[in-house]
Amino acid sequence: MSIFNENNKIIDIVEHDSNLLSVLNRFGIKLGFGDINVKQACINNNIDENFFLAILNVYHNDNYFPEQKFANFKIIDLISYLIETHKFYRMHILPEIDRLFNLLNTTNNVHKELFLLLEKMYTNFKTEFNNHIEYEEKNIFPMIIELSKNDKNANTNKAKLSEFNFINIHSQLDDKIIDLKNILIKYLPPIEDTFNCNAFAIAIFKFEKDLKDHSRIEDRILYPRVNQFYNQSTTDHVE
User: Fold this and answer.
1) What was the pLDDT predicted at 174?
2) If DSSP codes are grouped into helix, strand and coil, which group holds residue 9?
3) 53, 70, 93, 182: least buried by Cβ within 10 Å?
């Protein structure tokens, strides 16, 4: 699978992989690209070109994950991107999944018990997911930024962050969305409203894929950076 570089035109990237439209939006790059390439788009939007390309290619190519390159990026850029992704989930992805489920639920008059189970599982997942990203934004990310600066709160933050298990929490959320998906594609009896059922299932599949890429960045880049900060001397400072 291809790897994009600074000379690729944005319009060619989108035509090659339309799923990357949402990633472009998270960086503030909006439709109406004209003929600009990656380099020009990054200059226009004040984006670190190498960081942008690394994120873009992680989402495009499952085999691409330059951990060493990520380790050199500013922690504030990484966290800003993660917060923009949370905002995208909260404002666009989850409301769209809500809409598709409600549409499916109102057109279906059979298998009500299974639909109630499906609704309960999805609601529980959504509540847990929203609580998780809110906790990260209000507590974890600010502590990581302070820790990276080795400020006066560093030791307190080290203790608090050591209690937060990124990988375990992401794994629990992954399991919940897999259970939800299995109900849809394996256990739900065939229903007449195939179009809306498929639309709901496709939205869940896309969200699952995006979440996996998002979790990979947090588990394999953010979490190791936290450990790296643990080991810094009190006189070191990291941007």
Assistant:
1) 83
2) strand
3) 182
